[in-house]
Every structure is written in structure tokens, then in C-alpha cells.
Specification:
About 30% of the residues lie in helices and about 20% in strands. The strands form five sheets. Strands 6, 7, 8, 9, 10, 11, 12, 13, 14, 15, 16 and 17 form a twelve-stranded mixed β-sheet that branches. β25 and β26 form a beta hairpin. α13 crosses α24 and α22 crosses α23. It starts with a strand and ends with a helix. Bound molecules: zinc ion (2 copies).
């Protein structure tokens, strides 16, 4: 007989790890014990060497579905103790917390079967879950992950639930949020005046009929409320848009099943795989041109954000509802997703008609994740429910505890301690008091989870970012990392790259080292330092921030670079018609004098200019609209590109602007423009053939562009990297900031 101690780290708590170990031990007739502590799972095995080897092999090869093993340490003990059984011991508590918190996971098929089985005591119960599914991050107050440390603490288990909770062979063994209709939280429907209307299945049934009758209902999900309405009704969707003051930004649509999604979209195999994965993210897919879905769900866009019902409550709703529903995060503009019914009524009282609530509190808000498929692989646009908190294992331990505060838009925070790098779910844009409150609350939550007090803070260089101001207020050692360099670093972090790379950082806007607004940058860098090797030639943003919302201003500015005022006034182009003669003269003066016309090298703004020159978008109604529209007009049979110049460090596009003016066909403009960017990347990459290429920044969320660049680089046998697990947009900045210090 031999005795081994095994320590497993990673996502190993709240995912059925101990019962899995228990059952595995009995399979191989092994005695000993298993327990949890703040660092992970500890196992003591007492058996023959052969049994123990088999045990370890299976532990590594076939762990529980929701677990993620980062490391397994195995140590042989010289113990004289004799163990006569295998037992699950109580959690140990100490002060060192480093267990990774599991994200929330969509309801599993077994739990769906339970609610649909009339003979099951959880039939029709909207809040059921098990060790393989349900809330985790969103209900945890502190670690270790035990019921008393979650928002389920107040619910005392009934006999039937308790029996399952204590049975190591049951899939609800130690599933902390386990509950049933009798002992658990309840679903209730409220009207606008906060009066309870109905409860349980009756309430859900009523919501279905309200939606069918054109009403807007706020429905509580895992990490916050959704605003829901009939996706097939033009009238309902219009009224949601009006009430929410959201004229055209696409809404996500929730479906009953993958079969239902297929009636409205054309899916690739990979998209289907991701839609049905245990994370159930929103996936951007191709919309069918004709469907019964309201045109106003995603007006003028040929893609649709789809997701499948991911809680038992949603599944019960679809029992009574036979069409897809619009399900968009319940929040005010620039504010985080709402977690509480009363806040819904207070802030969105004029938007919603009813609220479907339940009394299992959301401790930590978490938005839906949004992804797309690029090169037949996942590409994250928003890293949240199902995926986040996201943990990356570091190659070696860090000597200091590092907190990175990210950018200002699509904010996330990241922390590094020991050999862990952990990224928070998407927090959002830090443009309001509420979002700043959410931002600081998230920092506190993570500090509490990991007993983490940072030694060093990393933030963006932008002096006016709220995250930077907050960083300065902390009175700690402070490191500033340039925004576009942080984009490249975020991809380097995902692949643990430390060697020199050629990084293309194409983005909206960010603060540059020279005080100008960067965004079309090419760096030669490693993870410690960078050289700005190339950049887009500077142009002026007429009216600063205003130009970000009005692509026509960027187009005009690029025309000013090329033509005289007289020439411009006589141009026969649609952009010019967007302004009065007076306005053009005034803006020309702004341009000449450089008053409120900061210099920029932003590639995102060039997209805006091209969309305006092509007469597609002159005023942007949501972020990314110009990129989406250009992509939509891409024709792969057009293989030509426009001319460009690379003179020393500057990439010049003025030849392209002139050629666009001479081109009348929209598809030709859009296609040749994307091809031009590909050619620029290729041209520069070939000049530095010895360096691997890194592509990062929001512009590369353009699927057409990124897929084309990859294809061409592969053809030239140039090695390239871009982020898949970490968003290419500003959501990745916090990880990049940390990687600068590793
Ligand atoms: Zn389940
Ligand atoms: Zn119960």
C-alpha cells in the first residue's frame, strides 16, 4: 500500500470535482479523502501503486465537464496511517485564497429534462441547477465557494434537496445553489407599480402571453435583467427602440433551440458548435434575407446576434412561446446591466410593462458574452457570462501583485498574483457614475475573492480616462502603458510571446506618446518595450470627439488634405452635400488653424471616412457601424486595391482618397479599401520577414479583413498571431497592461 497526496489547481470548486474524485476512488478501490481549500482540491490516496496510477490517468484525461485543471502536483508520503474508506472532508479555510472562481454556466440537458418531467419533484422549477450548470460567479460573495458564502445562504434545504446535496453519487452533490420549488427562491411577476401579479409557472406563462400581446417585460437572467419583447413583431421592436431611445443599434435575439435559430439564419458548423456550447454566448451569424423576424431587430445589417435560452426559466418561457424574442441588457445608456427589480422599475419604468423577478440575488453582475467565428475559430467581442472570470496560467510566479485597470471603453480589470492572471468580465464604458461604481465594485470583489492587495497598478496613458484617474487616486506604484502597445501585448499574453514581434495595432482612438490620438500603429516590440516603426500619416479630427460620431467630418478632413477649399466646394460627391457651404468654410478654418482639431493616426477613423465617401454612413448611430457596413459591401470577386505610400515611418492614404472620389460603385470602394489595408500589412510584413506578426485592436474585429490578412500572410509563410480568447478590442487592454510587467 502506498500513500500519495495530490493537489489540483484551476477551476476545481463548484464544478463537481470532489464527488468526481469520490466516485473515481471507489472505482479503483482507493481509500483516503478529498477536500477543498482556498487554493484548490487536495486528495489523499491510499492504495496499490497501480490503482493510484489509473486514478491519476483518469483524473487528467477525463475531469468533470466544467472544471479546468491548471496544475496537478503529486507527492508520495511516507505515512504509516491506514485508511479504511474514502471520504469527502470539510473545506479547510486559511488566509491564502487563490482558487479560481468558475463563470456562470448555462442550464444542462439533465436539468432541462428535470423541469419537463412531471414526475420529478423539480418539474416546472425555474431556478434548478446542478454541479454541471447554473450560477457561480454571479452569486458568490467570497471564497471558499460554499452555500453560506453565496446569495443562496438564506434558503434552507428541504429534506429531498438535502439528500441529493449530501449524496456523492448524485449530480447535485454539493451543488451550492441547489434548490426546489419548496425550499428555494421563487419566481414572481410584478406590474409597473411594483404590485405582485402572479408567481411560479403561472407567472412565466403570463409573461409569454404578455410578450405575445406586444408588451415589454424585464426578465431576470443569470447576471442581470434583459428587456424582452416579441422578435417577430415590428410594432413591439419599434416600441422598444422608441422607449429605450435606441434608434438602430442591433438587438440580440434569444431562441428556444438551435433548430429555431436555423430557421432564421445560415450557420456554419463552428457557429452551431459555439451556440450550443455550455457557455451559450451570443454569436454573430449570417441572417437569412427573408424571415419573419422584425426588420428593425438589426436594421440594414446582414448579421444577427443569436443565443439559445440558457436558464431553466428561459426554457419554461419557451414552452409557452413559439417565436424568438429580442433580449437586450436592461440598462440606461452608458450604465451597467441592472441586477435588481426595484432598480429596473426606477430607471426603466417608462420602458418596461412588467418585471419577471426571482429572489436569488445577483451578487456580481455579468453581461452576456458576444462572439463571432473568424477563420473557423472563436473570436470574442465581449468576454463575460460563461467565459469570465477568465484565468490564464503564467509560466512562473510573479514577485509582485499587479492590478491592471484597462481602458475607458469596454472596460475590464485584470490581476496577477502567484502564477495566475485573472481577467474580470466585461464592465462596459466608464462614462457614468454608475459604471464607475460598477468598476470599483468589481475591483473590490476580486480583491476579496483572492485576498488581493496590489503592489503595483498599471493603467492607460490617457490622462482623461476615468480608469487612469482612479489609478492615480490609489497612491501606489503606478505604471502607464500606451494604449495601442497594450493591444499588441494582450495578444502576446494569450500566446505567452516574449520575443520581438511586428505588431499591427489598428484601433479607434487612444492616447499616443506624443500627445496625439493614435490608432493606426505598427510597432516593433517585445513585451517590455516598443518602437513605433510605422503609423498612419496624421490627419485632423474636425471637432475632436464630434468627429468620432460623424464620419462625414473625417471624410471632409481627408479631402482638405488633398484639395483646396475651392476645389472641394465644386466636388460632385455625396459627402460635400452633407454640409452647407457655410459649414464647409467654417470647418476649413477649423482645419487650417487646428482649433479643436487634434491630430490622429486612427485606422478606425479611416473606416469612417471611407464609409462616408462611399455614401454609406455620414453620421454613426452606434459604434462599429461603419466597419460593419463596409464589410457588408465587400465583394470577394474584386481583388484590386487602391494605391498607398509608405514614406519612412508614415503610411499615406491620400492617393486612395483621390481614387475613391473617382469611383462610383459602392462595392468596388469597400472591397478595394479592405484589400488596400491587407496590402499595407503585407507590404510592411514582408519588409520584416524575420518577425512574427501580431494583429490586434478593434479594427481586426472586421471578420473579412482579418480572414483575408491571415490568408495572405499564410501564403507568404509569415507567422502571425491574433487574440481569440481575449477580445481584440479594448476589453483586452487590461491583460496587455499586465503582460508588460511579466
Ligand atoms: Zn444541471
Ligand atoms: Zn428543496
Amino acid at each position: 500500500m502506498q500513500t500519495y497526496k495530490i493537489r489540483v489547481k484551476g477551476i476545481v470548486q463548484g464544478v463537481g470535482f470532489r464527488p468526481f474524485v469520490f466516485n473515481l476512488a471507489s472505482k479503483y478501490s482507493i481509500n483516503g479523502w478529498v477536500n477543498n481549500d482556498e487554493k484548490g482540491v487536495n486528495i489523499l490516496l491510499y492504495s496499490s501503486k497501480e490503482s493510484i496510477e489509473n486514478f491519476i490517468k483518469e483524473l487528467k484525461g477525463n475531469p468533470p465537464p466544467l472544471s479546468k485543471i491548471d496544475s496537478i502536483e503529486i507527492e508520495e508520503l511516507n505515512s504509516k496511517n491506514i485508511y479504511t474508506k474514502f471520504e469527502i472532508k470539510k473545506s479547510e479555510t486559511s488566509n491564502n485564497k487563490s482558487t479560481i472562481i468558475s463563470p456562470d454556466i448555462a442550464v444542462c440537458q439533465d436539468c432541462i429534462d428535470d423541469i419537463n418531467d412531471e414526475s420529478n419533484f423539480r418539474a416546472n422549477y425555474a431556478l434548478t441547477n446542478c454541479t454541471n450548470c447554473g450560477p457561480r460567479y454571479s452569486i458568490i460573495k467570497t471564497v471558499p465557494y460554499d452555500r453560506c458564502n453565496t446569495s443562496m445562504a438564506e434558503f434552507i434545504l428541504c429534506e429531498a434537496c438535502k439528500k441529493e446535496y449530501e449524496d456523492p453519487t448524485n449530480r447535485r452533490y454539493h451543488a451550492q445553489p441547489v434548490a426546489c420549488e419548496k425550499c428555494g427562491p421563487q419566481v414572481k411577476l410584478y406590474d409597473k407599480s411594483n404590485k405582485e401579479v402572479s408567481f411560479s409557472l403561472e407567472a412565466i406563462k403570463e409573461v409569454a402571453s404578455l410578450i405575445n400581446n406586444g408588451k415589454i417585460v424585464a426578465i431576470k437572467g443569470l447576471g442581470g435583467f434583459h428587456l424582452v419583447c416579441d422578435g417577430a413583431s415590428e410594432e413591439s421592436v419599434d416600441s422598444l427602440r422608441q422607449r429605450k431611445n435606441r434608434p438602430s443599434k442591433p438587438f440580440a435575439v434569444m431562441f428556444k433551440s438551435i433548430e429555431q435559430i436555423k430557421e432564421y439564419t445560415s450557420l456554419t458548423k463552428k457557429e452551431e458548435e459555439l451556440l450550443t456550447s455550455k457557455e451559450k454566448p451570443i454569436v454573430l451569424v449570417k441572417k437569412q434575407t427573408k424571415s419573419s423576424l422584425s426588420n428593425n431587430v438589426a436594421p440594414n445589417i446582414n448579421r444577427l446576434g443569436c443565443f439559445i435560452a440558457y436558464t431553466p426559466l428561459h426554457h419554461l418561457l419557451f414552452r409557452f412561446l413559439h417565436k424568438p424574442i429580442v433580449a437586450t441588457s436592461a440598462n440606461l445608456k452608458d450604465e451597467p446591466i441592472i441586477r435588481f427589480k426595484d432598480e429596473v422599475l426606477q430607471k426603466l419604468g417608462n420602458v418596461v410593462d412588467f418585471v419577471l423577478d426571482f429572489n436569488r440575488d445577483i451578487v456580481n453582475a455579468c453581461d452576456d458574452s458576444v462572439i463571432q467565428v473568424i477563420n473557423d475559430e472563436i473570436s470574442k467581442l465581449r468576454n463575460a457570462r460563461g467565459y469570465a472570470p477568465t484565468s490564464l496560467k503564467l509560466e512562473k510566479k510573479v514577485s509582485k501583485k499587479i492590478l491592471a485597470l484597462g481602458a475607458n471603453q469596454k472596460s475590464t480589470i485584470a490581476l496577477a498574483f502567484e502564477d495566475n492572471l485573472i481577467v474580470s468580465p466585461h464592465i462596459g464604458d466608464l462614462n457614468s457614475i454608475e459604471s464607475m461604481e460598477y468598476f470599483t465594485r468589481t475591483i473590490e470583489t476580486f480583491k476579496n475573492f483572492y485576498d488581493f492587495e496590489p503592489d503595483v497598478i498599471v493603467c492607460d496613458k490617457h490622462p482623461n480616462y476615468e480608469s487612469t484617474k482612479f489609478a492615480k487616486s490609489l497612491n501606489k506604484e503606478l505604471i502607464f502603458v500606451q494604449h495601442h502597445y497594450a493591444h499588441i501585448l494582450s495578444t502576446m499574453a494569450e500566446y505567452r510571446l516574449k520575443e520581438k514581434v511586428l505588431g499591427f495595432s489598428f484601433d479607434g482612438t487612444g492616447y499616443g506618446d506624443d500627445g496625439n490620438i493614435w490608432g493606426g500603429e505598427v510597432f516593433i516590440c517585445n513585451n517590455k518595450s516598443y518602437e513605433r516603426a510605422y503609423h498612419l500619416k496624421y490627419f485632423k479630427l474636425l471637432g475632436g470627439e464630434k468627429a468620432v460620431k460623424e464620419p462625414k467630418r473625417v471624410a471632409l478632413s481627408l479631402l482638405f488634405e488633398k484639395f483646396s477649399l475651392e476645389e472641394i466646394l465644386s466636388l460632385e460627391t455625396s459627402v460635400i452635400k452633407q454640409f452647407s457651404e457655410q459649414e464647409i468654410k467654417m470647418l476649413h478654418m477649423v482645419w487650417t488653424k487646428g482649433l479643436n482639431a487634434p491630430l490622429t493616426s486612427s485606422m478606425g477613423r479611416v473606416f469612417d471616412a471611407v464609409a462616408s465617401l462611399a455614401n454609406l454612413v455620414h453620421i454613426q448611430s452606434f459604434e462599429g457601424e461603419t466597419g460593419l457596413t463596409i464589410e457588408q459591401n465587400y465583394d470577394e470577386t474584386i481583388i484590386d486595391s487602391f494605391d498607398f505610400e509608405v514614406i519612412e515611418k508614415e503610411i499615406g492614404l491620400s492617393l486612395m482618397i483621390k481614387q475613391i472620389l473617382d469611383e462610383k460603385d459602392i462595392k468596388t470602394i469597400c472591397s478595394k479599401f479592405i484589400n488596400t489595408l491587407v496590402e499595407i500589412i503585407l507590404f510592411i510584413s514582408k519588409k520584416h520577414k524575420e518577425l512574427p506578426v501580431v494583429l490586434s485592436g478593434g479594427v481586426f474585429q472586421n471578420k473579412t479583413l482579418l480572414e483575408l490578412v491571415c490568408k495572405k500572410l499564410a501564403k507568404e509563410k509569415i507567422k502571425y498571431f491574433y487574440s481569440k480568447e481575449v477580445p481584440l478590442n479594448d476589453g483586452g487592454i487590461s491583460i496587455g497592461q499586465i503582460y508588460n510587467l511579466l
